[in-house]
Design goal:
The protein is built from 19 helices and eight strands. The chain has helices at 4-9, 76-91, 96-109, 113-125, 136-154, 164-178, 180-199, 213-216, 228-238, 245-257, 261-265, 298-310, 332-347, 356-369, 374-380, 388-397, 399-417, 423-434, 436-439, and strands at residues 17-20, 25-29, 35-43, 46-55, 72-74, 272-273, 278-281, 292-295. A hairpin with a 4-residue loop joins strand 6 and strand 7 (278-281). It is elongated and about 90 Å long. The termini are far apart.
Length: 445
């Protein structure tokens, strides 16, 4: 039998090793230094292992035997108490390992909606969740929506108590008090929490399978701006659309530059300066009737290089399929988007459709939410300034800052596509852009 002194003297090795105690119990010493009590036994002809708990030398064996449970930090004496409990179960033909799992499952089933919501938020925030991890902005929005609109209403209810009529009534009340967009976000939180509980093995009916988004509210397409998570889903689906690879690149290019569809479709190679990384759209093609300079990020330049390789004989950045002297049609890019949306909707039926112009709105909304200087964003969108004298000067004054902002936006999109946060990218870009206020002045007395 082991002693506390012997347990304390055990040092971890590169591989896990075992030290026996008594009656089938042993201590597994892990490479991390954790010392875990385990019990090997046979029942109904099969070998099983029970994880009794981890050794905690700081504990004194003063706790009541009824309060200690499998999986806790334990003293050596407490571990042996649980071993005796497990051996009695085995003698009765009961698997202690299975009993442990059933108790854990019962505890999960006893969780309220609020408890499952916290589990869902923790899972979506964990980098180990991989592609399931949500972008920080999306997660913060869902947390806030839950606390503001759902916690007081259904947070303390068990999952089986959250019925279709109750959810519909709560969402209708939210729509009346806070508006349709908030109600739709609240519905998405309810749906997602139930999906997470179901994926954890809980048998629960998701009320949002009946309470569809369209039955609560319908947002007009003109208000569409993709969230970071929606950008990830769209770009992933875009790679599966059966179309020319250059059309996928064209949509990425529009998303990265924030230009209007017509500004891209009618663009020619004469407007591109690869050396300076600038695209100058002539006044004749601009809505405001003034030439517009677009800083080109590295990803956009890579796309243009691909276009040049594919369409070297054409004056158009992306010519039509049958006539290389003519650009693609107005409907082509929208058809590719529609195909991608249908792919997304197979897994996410609530994913709303959108058009090419919504990529420009996504560009604007994303940069504004990242809190970049509004003047830089407005210039990148070629929105006319009320102060025309300042506008002439500012086009050049903020070009360096806009280059940094455009590159950051492209890096943000790439990060979201990988399921990663863009917070550090944004902070670093802002720091670099701020330096130009003092070090890159191009006008003085």
């Amino acid at each position: 039998m082991l002693t506390d002194r012997e347990l304390g003297a055990l040092e971890p090795k590169e591989k896990m090793f075992k030290v026996t105690d008594r009656d089938g119990m042993y201590v597994a010493v892990l490479p991390t230094g954790t010392k875990a009590f385990r019990y090997d036994y046979r029942i109904n002809g099969r070998r099983e292992t029970l994880a009794i708990g981890r050794y905690d030398p700081a504990l004194k064996p003063t706790r009541d035997s009824e309060t200690i449970q499998y999986g806790m930090g334990l003293s050596l004496r407490e571990a042996r108490t649980l071993l005796d409990r497990a051996r009695l179960d085995v003698e009765r033909g009961v698997s202690p390992s299975r009993v442990k799992v059933e108790k854990r499952t019962a505890a999960n089933e006893a969780l309220t909606f609020g408890g499952w919501a916290e589990k869902y938020f923790a899972f979506k925030a964990d980098p180990k969740s991989g592609a399931e991890q949500l972008a920080d902005s999306t997660l913060e929005l869902r947390r806030a929506t839950y606390r503001r609109t759902l916690e007081a209403e259904i947070g303390r209810l068990r999952l089986e108590e959250i019925t279709v009529p109750r959810v519909r009534a709560v969402l209708e009340d939210i729509k009346d008090k806070r508006g349709p967009a908030v109600a739709l976000h609240a519905r998405e939180v309810v749906r997602a929490v139930f999906v997470h509980a179901q994926s954890s093995g809980i048998q629960a009916i998701n009320p949002c399978d009946v309470v569809r988004a369209a039955s609560i509210a319908r947002l007009e397409p003109r208000d569409r701006a993709l969230s970071p998570d929606e950008i990830r889903k769209f770009l992933s689906a875009l790679e599966r659309v059966a179309c020319a690879p250059t059309l996928r690149l064209a949509l990425r290019f529009v998303l990265l530059t924030g230009v209007r569809k017509s500004e891209f479709i009618d663009a020619t190679w004469h407007e591109i300066d690869f050396d300076k990384g600038l695209w100058t759209i002539p006044a004749a093609r601009m809505k405001a009737g003034k030439a517009h300079v677009v800083p080109l990020c590295e990803q956009a330049l890579d796309i243009l290089t691909a276009f040049k390789s594919c369409f070297a004989a054409s004056e158009c950045l992306h010519p039509g399929r049958y006539d290389h002297d003519m650009p693609i049609s107005n409907a082509t890019l929208n058809r590719v988007i529609d195909a991608a949306v249908k792919i997304v909707q197979k897994d996410d039926p609530e994913f709303l459709p959108f058009g090419v112009h919504d990529l420009r709105r996504t560009f604007s909304t994303g940069l504004n939410r990242a809190k970049f200087d509004e003047r830089w964003i407005e210039m990148s969108l070629a929105h006319a300034s009320k102060n025309r004298i300042a506008a002439v000067y500012n086009v050049n004054r903020y070009l360096s800052e806009r280059k940094i902002m455009h590159q950051c936006w492209a890096d943000m999109v790439d990060a979201w596509a990988r399921g990663e946060s863009a917070r550090e990218l944004i902070a670093n870009a802002k720091r670099r852009a701020a330096e130009f206020h003092e070090d890159d002045l191009d006008y003085d007395l």
